[in-house]
Amino acid sequence: MKLHKYLIAGFLVYAVIGTLTVIAQANPHTGHGGDQHPIVKIPMHIATPRIELNISRDTMSGFNLHIDFDRFELESPRDASDTPQRFLEGHAHLYINGKKVQRLYAADVHLPEKLLRPGFNQITVTLNAHDHSTWSRGGKRILATLFIQCDRENFVLHRFSTSPISLGASVKNQAPTLGAALANN
Predict the structure, then answer these.
(1) Which has the higher per-residue pLDDT, 87 or 159?
(2) Which of 66, 89, 120, 136 sits 20 to 30 Å CA-CA off 51?
(3) Predicted model pTM
(4) Strand partners, 123
């Protein structure tokens, strides 16, 4: 049993370091079949969007992912505004275990079980402009990540957001965000 705990702790350290490395990279899409999108800095007069992820088991199969966001208009490119806004607009990109799965134009998405492998999984959502460039502030891409273990009752092992909505808060039965933990230090 102790070995199992060490393996989980080791994986979490590896996963967090891997996530922080991905955040520091200039282009998160490198190596994804030529799907390369630049990073775009958020203009200083616009507030930084905030993002967090919530996930629940679906009653039929798989999981339901919900994106909580603030200061961002999540929409289809066909609904893009031609007039300057006080906030950012665009869509999101969903990654599972480092592989881009799809674009998101709404806050909720069903994740079929076939997208997840047994054991540990990393789910990341980035906020993107309509040209697919990834929004960033201070050199950090705006994203949120969940680390889950599908075969556990309390399956969310860790949360991370570069721009969390609820600093210091934790969701019932789920781990607090790393951003919140860093803010409290």
Answers:
(1) 159
(2) 120
(3) 0.71
(4) 96, 146
